[in-house]
Structure formats: C-alpha cells, structure tokens
Amino acid sequence: MKNKTIIVTGGAGFIGSAFVGQAVARGERVIVLDALTYAGHKENLDWIVGDGGVVGAGDAWKLVEGNICDANLVTQLLQEYNPSAIVDFAAESHVDNSIASPVDFIHTNILGTYNLLEAARAYHNKLNGAEKENFRFVHISTDEVYGSLGETGKFTEESPMQPNSPYSASKAAGDLLCRAWFHTYNFPVIVTNCTNNYGARQFPEKLIPRMITTALAGEKLPIYGDGKNIRDWIHVEDHAQGINLALTKGKLGETYAFGGDAERNNLQVVETICNILDQLRPRADGKSYKEQMSFVPDRLGHDRRYAIDDSKSQRELGFVRKYNFEQGLLDAVQWYLDNTNWCAAVTRLP
C-alpha cells in the first residue's frame, strides 16, 4: 500500500536496511529507529533513493537514533508518525558475542521486545475503525530458537523451541512474548523465523563477509571445528520480501518461516568463496585463497545443523525465492570487492 507509514526498528542493520529499501521502493514512508550500535550504521541506508530519485530525499525515510528500550521515545514516535505497522528487526544477533556477554542480549532481545509490545499495545488501544483493524506488529526472529537438527528433517513453525545459546534463548523469549501478547491482549502480532541470511551490507563479523574481508587482508580464514556444521542460506532480498508478505498477507497470531533451500556446510561455503575470489581477485603470488584456510577450536554450544521448511509461507503468503545460492554468493562477493569504502566505514573504531 502506497503512502502508508511504518516504523522499522533496527532498520540500519543488515536485514532491516534491505527491508527499508524495498519498502521505500513500494512508495511507503519509513521511520527507522536504530541505536546505531557497532552493527547498525547510517551507511546501510545511504543508498536508498527517496522522493524525486534523490538518495535520502524528501520524506521517504527518516533515521531516528534511539533504543527500543527507551519507552518514552517509542511512544513519542508512535504518536508523532501514526504508523500502520511496526516491523521489529532490532536485536543483538551474534552468537559469539552472546557467549561472551549475554546481558546485552537479555536487555535488548527480551526487555526491548517487551517495551515495544507494551508501547505498541497502548497505541493500538487508542486507534479506531480501519486504523485499529489494519495495524500490524511483525517481530523478526531466527531458526536458532528451534535448536539443532540431526542429519535429516527440517524445522517448521510447529517445531518446539530448544535454544542452545544465550542469543537464541533471548530470541525465543521475545517470540514467546509476542505469542502471549496476541493470546492475552488480542494484540495483532505476527512472528517470522528465518535461516542464515547473506548479501550486501552484512556486518563483517558474520561468516560470509568475514571470510571475504579476511581473505582479502591476507589473513587466516578461521573455520570452527571440522567445518561440517550445516546452515540453510537465504538471500537477504528474498527474506525482506517474505517479511513484507507476512506483514500484508499474514494471519494474526501466526508464525511464518523463511528458508533458502540451500543447505551448505561451513567448509563448502568458505571453499566456494575462495574459488570466487581466485577468479575475481587473484592473489599476487598466484596461490589459491584456500591456502589461508585454518581450523580453530569449535564454538561453545555450536548447533550442528539448521534448515527450514517454508512450505507454509509459500502456500499461505505466496512466498517465492528469486536467488539461488551460487549466483547470490557470487553477487555478494562482487559487492564487497566493489564497496571497500563501506567496509572501512562500518568497521572503523568508535
């Protein structure tokens, strides 16, 4: 729907910025609320073309620096912009960081989600008619809340939650809060869970951009354990489109899962990145980037395999993936090669 206003929390992050770009392209007005911590950056939004074809022009999108735990700020934004939806990407999301410092994840992913739900519920209660009926709160989560899979099978929306890290436990708690607010207060919540994302503007702590940037720096490519941990990979643009389908077509109180149908173990992913770099940016010494691969001790609580069955989203929402993994990964590597200035900007020390 054109001309509607939505608030996107965490919209200056990797997945959030992809969603914001698509929303602006649809003609929607977006208010981005982001704390701009180490993984959220204004540079992730600067590419988005606003009114008149000018980047950042007009009222197409606006960035508000702030934390979802700031109840007064969230309430102020709701009152000022009268949004028809909140799409909640805001989260601490790196497993390694959650192991080293879980308190930040408890604060943002649980207390922050609670704060958003309560502020939005108070706002929703004051709406009337079509505005009240059409308002949506979409909470973005992860497949990691379901724990680890064996060699076969896939997660579905009905899989039991069995989180194994402080990160996934905090996200599971947020999902359950959303469920409770729907069943207790009849608040219009929809939850989405996804597999590993990849694509442009992903912060270099994550596997794919880390391997790209580390390889180009001539450093060792650290691979956890035996490298056989399996993930299902979805392109960020496919995921962002799926979220919009959940927002516009999803049934209240439901959960929708999005996968990439692209299971690869970490070793396969790193080897593919090395092969692409060998073609696009050969090493000066003529050797393969695979020479830089190095196995390191496994991560604590490292889940062995994730994969999602997203047939419900395909069936009920009309979700269709546009990207296959090999072409998408090639495009991602090329993007990082072409955007070294972005990499330098987002990884600068505060």
The CATH topology: Rossmann fold
Task: Report helical residue fraction.
Answer: 40-55%
Runs in which pLDDT lies below 50 for 5 or more consecutive residues are none
- The radius of gyration is 20 Å
| CATH architecture descriptor name | 3-Layer(aba) Sandwich
Strand content: 15-25%
Q: Please give the largest β-sheet.
A: 7 strands, parallel
Number of helices: 12
Tally the structural domains: 1
Q: What is the CATH superfamily?
A: NAD(P)-binding Rossmann-like Domain
What does this 3D model show about the protein?
The protein is an alpha/beta fold and 350 residues long. The chain has one domain: 3-Layer(aba) Sandwich (Rossmann fold). The chain has helices at 14-25, 71-81, 95-100, 102-125, 129-134, 166-185, 207-216, 236-249, 266-280, 311-317, 325-338, 340-346, and strands at 5-9, 29-34, 61-65, 85-88, 136-142, 189-194, 196-198, 221-224, 230-235, 255-258, 263-265, 293-296. The strands form three sheets. Strands 3-2-1-4-5-6-10 form a seven-stranded parallel beta sheet, with helices on both faces. Strands 7-9-11 form a three-stranded mixed beta sheet. α1 (14-25) packs across α8 (236-249). The longest helix is centred in the N-terminal third of the chain and has 24 residues, at 102-125. The chain starts with a strand and ends with a helix.
Key structural traits:
single chain, 350 residues, Rossmann fold, 7-stranded parallel β-sheet, 12 helices, 42% helix, globular
What is the secondary structure topology, with strand pairs?
Elements: E1 5-9, H1 14-25, E2 29-34, E3 61-65, H2 71-81, E4 85-88, H3 95-100, H4 102-125, H5 129-134, E5 136-142, H6 166-185, E6 189-194, E7 196-198, H7 207-216, E8 221-224, E9 230-235, H8 236-249, E10 255-258, E11 263-265, H9 266-280, E12 293-296, H10 311-317, H11 325-338, H12 340-346
Parallel strand pairs: 1-2, 1-4, 2-3, 4-5, 5-6, 6-10, 7-9, 8-12
Antiparallel strand pairs: 9-11
Helix pairs in contact: 1-8, 2-4, 4-6, 7-9, 9-11
